Amino acid sequence: MSNIDQTGETPDKKMRLTNNPPDCENADCHHKRAAAGGSEAIQSKPESMEDCMGRSMELLSNTFAASAKRWEMIVYPSLFAFVLLAAYGFFLIYSLSTNVSRIAESMDSMTKNMTHVAMNMEKVTQNMVLMTQTVDSQSTSLHEVVANMRGMNHSMSRMRHDMSVMNGNVSRPMSFMNSFMPW
Length: 183
Hints:
By secondary structure, the protein is an all-alpha fold. It has 4 helices and no strands. The protein is 80% helix and 0% strand.
């Protein structure tokens, strides 16, 4: 008998000629291998347990590679988004610290300006005291003005009375003379 009749394979061990079931424990692995796209599993069947395990490991490796590619499609964009958000967070913190330093500088200048305001407030207080004294003296002067206005009012009243008396004295003779005048 030849080598092909005894083992059912060619001398280069690439293709089996018989349709014997595989002698490994997981006979279903060959169908999965064929479904996964392995053309070699369709043409030939494993000859030993090591070959079946090798093919199973290859199937596991291919499945893991496909899964890794799916994970890469999720992880890499997520990592990019995280880096982008981290950079934006750094920018926010940097701008916040810059704004806080500006606020501190503004507060420092405000403190200096408040010192000047406090010095000027003392002068304003002194001027207000002088104004109060001046208004008090004007108040006393206004009392004198009010008294003088009363005197003037009394004098005006007397002048009005005198004018009315004079009008009475002049109007009678004038009315008599008006009758002789041509105009």
